[in-house]
Write a structure and sequence with these properties.
The complex is a heterodimer of chains A (107) and B (115). Chain A is 0% helix and 50% strand. Chain A is mainly beta and 107 residues long.
C-alpha cells in the first residue's frame, strides 16, 4: 500500500493568512492526488483533483501543486469558512489511501 | 445533481454482519465510474474499503478482503456494502462515493459495533 504522510496534523492561522499542507507519498503517485475539506458532521468535499485542478465551485484561494512523491495544498487569505479538516487522497494505486488529515483552526 | 445517500443500521453486534445501502440519484451507476465505500474511524483516520465498477467488477482493500462484499442492484441504482464478522474496531462513519478521485460523497452513516 502507498503510505500518505500528511503534515502538519493541526494548524492554527489568522484570518487572511496563507497556510500550506503537505502530503508525501511512499512512492511516485503520478499526480493522482485529490484534496478534501471536511466540516464536522458533513461529507468530505473535494476541492482539488489531479494535483492542481480546482473542482467547480472551489474558490481560487485554494491551490495545489506537486509531482512524484511530494504534494502541497495551500489556502491563501484564510477565511472563517475555511476552518475545517483537510485530507489528501492518492488514487494512482489500489488500495487508494488517505493522509492522516490536518485540522485547521483559527488563532 | 448527483447525490449519494447511505442507509442502514447504526448499531451492529460483534461477530455479526454490517450491511449498508448507497442510493444514487442524478447518475446511473452503470454509465461510468467506480463506486466506493470509504470509512472514517473515531480519531479521524480514513480507509478506502473497495469499489464496484460501472461494469460490475469489484476491487477490495486487501486489509478487508476476506470480510467484505460490494454488490449492486442496477434496477434501483443502488450499491451495497456487506462486512462480515465485525468487531468494535469496525466502529466508524461509513461513506459511499463516486469515482477514483471520489468527487461525490454521501453524507455518511455512523455505525457502532457494540453488544
Amino acid at each position: 500500500d502507498i503510505q500518505m504522510t500528511q503534515s502538519p496534523p493541526s494548524l492554527s492561522a489568522s484570518l487572511g493568512d496563507k497556510v500550506t499542507i503537505t502530503c508525501q507519498a511512499s512512492q511516485n503517485i503520478n499526480k493522482y492526488i485529490a484534496w478534501y475539506q471536511q466540516k464536522p458532521g458533513k461529507a468530505p468535499r473535494q476541492l482539488i483533483r489531479y494535483t492542481s485542478t480546482l473542482v467547480s465551485g472551489t474558490p481560487s484561494r485554494f491551490s495545489g501543486s506537486g509531482s512524484g512523491r511530494d504534494y502541497s495544498f495551500s489556502i491563501s487569505n484564510v477565511e472563517s469558512e475555511d476552518i475545517a479538516s483537510y485530507y489528501c487522497l492518492q488514487y494512482d494505486n489500489l488500495p487508494r489511501t488517505f493522509g492522516g488529515g490536518t485540522k485547521l483552526e483559527l488563532k | 445533481e448527483i447525490q449519494l445517500q447511505e442507509s442502514g443500521p447504526g448499531l451492529v453486534k460483534p461477530s455479526q454482519s454490517l450491511s449498508l445501502t448507497c442510493s444514487v440519484t442524478g447518475y446511473t451507476i452503470t454509465s461510468g465510474y467506480d463506486w466506493s465505500w470509504i470509512r472514517k474511524f473515531p480519531g479521524n483516520k480514513m480507509e478506502w474499503m473497495g469499489y464496484i465498477s460501472y461494469s460490475g467488477s469489484t476491487n477490495y482493500n486487501p486489509s478487508l478482503k476476506s470480510r467484505i462484499s460490494i454488490t449492486r442492484d442496477t434496477s434501483k441504482n443502488q450499491f451495497f456494502l456487506q462486512l462480515n464478522s465485525v468487531t468494535t474496531e469496525d466502529t466508524a462513519t461509513y461513506y459511499c462515493a463516486r469515482g477514483g478521485g471520489s468527487d461525490y460523497w454521501g453524507q455518511g452513516v455512523m455505525v457502532t459495533v457494540s453488544s
